[in-house]
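> example.struct
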């Protein structure tokens, strides 16, 4: 019998582009850690990720979609923590993208936080 891999969560845009669907695949787990790479955002939403010559993410998520998906995952029983990555401050000399990240963190946690089970 094959050992199942770790659970994965997939966020997918529906055809209307406004709805994001979360799908959890894999073994049921009691604890999980949410990791968000900001390069899932559409390049028109966030440009300070990766290296300056990295290709942009076509049809990535909006900030509002990412916040909604993140909020849902954080409020899931068993979510014990959260990390966010893929920010290149060299591509954000005025700090606007950094400010937008802080706004995203606040929006994603406005109804509770990791492990709140709400």
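> example.seq
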């Amino acid at each position: 019998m094959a050992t199942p891999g770790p659970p994965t969560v997939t966020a997918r845009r529906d055809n209307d582009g406004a709805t994001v669907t979360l799908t959890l695949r894999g073994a049921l787990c009691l604890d999980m850690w949410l990791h968000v790479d900001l390069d899932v955002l559409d390049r028109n939403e966030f440009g300070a990720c990766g290296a300056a010559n990295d290709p942009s993410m076509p049809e990535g998520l909006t900030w509002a979609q990412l916040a909604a998906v993140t909020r849902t995952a954080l409020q899931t029983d068993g979510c014990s923590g959260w990390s966010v990555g893929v920010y290149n401050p060299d591509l954000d000399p005025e700090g606007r993208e950094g400010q937008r990240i802080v706004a995203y963190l606040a929006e994603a946690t406005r109804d509770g936080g990791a492990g709140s089970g709400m």
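> remarks
Residues 113-118 have pLDDT under 50 and may be disordered.
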